[in-house]
Write a structure and sequence with these properties.
The protein is mostly helical and 81 residues long. The longest helix has 19 residues. The protein has four helices and no strands. The chain starts with 7 loop residues before the first helix and ends with a helix. Helix content is 60%, strand content 0%. It has one domain. Helix 2 packs across helix 4.
Length: 81
């Protein structure tokens, strides 16, 4: 079973805060995404996202070879941030 990289929460939070600061400047009248929504969008746009998240180079682009249980682990992790 794959496990999530130990510093993933810190890195995701830092990247999300950077995204939010850019969002606020470009979209002052719109609410930004939640961090869970942002992580989901990142996982759909970055083919290496799941390789990085689980620190496993054997994961296919966009996590296409992850099991349903591993996908749930990732989603639960996003929701816990």
């Amino acid at each position: 079973m794959r496990t999530i990289t130990s510093n993933a929460g810190q890195v995701l939070n830092e990247n999300y805060r950077r995204h939010i600061s850019n969002w606020d400047e470009q979209n002052p009248d719109n609410e930004p995404y939640s961090i869970a929504e942002w992580c989901d969008l990142e996982s759909q746009s970055d083919p290496n996202f799941f390789r990085w998240l689980f620190n496993d180079d054997d994961i296919s682009d966009f996590g296409s070879n992850l099991t349903d249980e591993e996908k749930k682990i990732a989603v639960n992790y996003y929701n816990s941030l």
